[in-house]
Amino acid sequence: MAVFTSVTLDDLQEWIKQFSLGQVSAVRGISSGIENSNFFITTESGEYVLTIFENLSFEQLPFYLKLMKHLASRGVLVPDPVCNQQGELVTALHGKPAAIVSKLEGSSQMSPLPVHCAEVGAMLAKMHLAAADFSIRQKNLRAAEWRHATVPDVLPFLDAEKQHLLKAEVHFQDALEASPLYRGLPNGPVHADLFRNNVMFDGERLTGFFDFYFAGCDTWIFDVAVTVNDWCIDIESGALDDARTLALLNAYHSVRPFTEPEALVWQAMLRAGALRFWLSRLYDFYMPREAEMLTPHDPGHFERILRLRETGPVPPLPYFSA
Ligand SMILES: Nc1ncnc2c1ncn2[C@@H]1O[C@H](COP(=O)(O)OP(=O)(O)OP(=O)(O)O)[C@@H](O)[C@H]1O
Ligand SMILES: N[C@@H](CCO)C(=O)O
């Protein structure tokens, strides 16, 4: 579990008064997640999620929280952030930025069927369209610049063959990003971390996307690739499952049709998604942060996925030919 900062009921009694939620009667640390400290809190107005941000700053947070508010107001199922009486979404708790958001019903679906993947695909397309006119622009903080800063940190821990794989893939992605094809891809605010554990379901009904704290502006197709690389795979091997992949892609396409350039970069984007998470997992594995209890995710999982996406084949993207 990752509660980096502890919070007691006593800590919250005064702090909560700035929100119009009444008194807090219970606070419970949430035993999953590796980025932030999360708590379920029970107030006189109902149950909410309190997050203390361990890595993001007061300046960075309005992007994520206002994006969630923007999406919630447009009918995309996401946690709705709660403002304090001054209209602020982020306030200090134990000297760190903190926010309260509504609690989603349901639980994560860790063994998805095609029906779940179709729900995720349709909501993802709806989210991309709804976010397109969001006024704040913040780049994806785990994109090229981060890649270049992080690779030198992890290379000394890898054997020669893994070093080669990592360097060659970075080179491939850099070249793609410099191409006119890439610059023509539709883009906007994306979730960028839409794994199984960041979506809630009640049976077959999707109840919400959450954990927007890796969101940023990037290509929509990158977001689809990150999502497919988690929702549509055999978890042991990393191989794509055709039925789930097609269900997710077709449902997305029926809400926001894919374009031909997106179809052309599809396999490369699956590689980009695998590289992004291989690298962050390598970093967290070899350079762990302090936490009460923290089990780093296995980097080998995304190394396998990267190798599989490089060699292919992958199910083709349906697209609308203009
Ligand atoms: N709005 C919400 N409604 C219901 N449950 C939530 C909500 N936000 C977080 N949770 C619960 O808290 C857990 C951890 O949250 P979250 O995934 O945001 O943490 P994190 O530290 O950012 O994790 P990671 O980056 O590893 O996914 C989730 O698995 C979920 O059970
Ligand atoms: N989804 C990420 C964790 C950060 O949210 C991973 O599985 O590596």
UniProtKB/TrEMBL annotation:
One of its GO terms (molecular function) is kinase activity. It catalyses: L-homoserine + ATP = O-phospho-L-homoserine + ADP + H(+). Gene3D superfamilies: 3.90.1200.10, Phosphorylase Kinase, domain 1. Residues 27-258 form the Aminoglycoside phosphotransferase domain. Keywords: Amino-acid biosynthesis, ATP-binding, Kinase, Nucleotide-binding, Threonine biosynthesis, Transferase. Pfam families: APH. Pathway: Amino-acid biosynthesis; L-threonine biosynthesis; L-threonine from L-aspartate: step 4/5. NCBIfam families: PRK05231.1, thrB_alt. Belongs to the pseudomonas-type ThrB family. This is Homoserine kinase. It comes from Undibacterium squillarum.
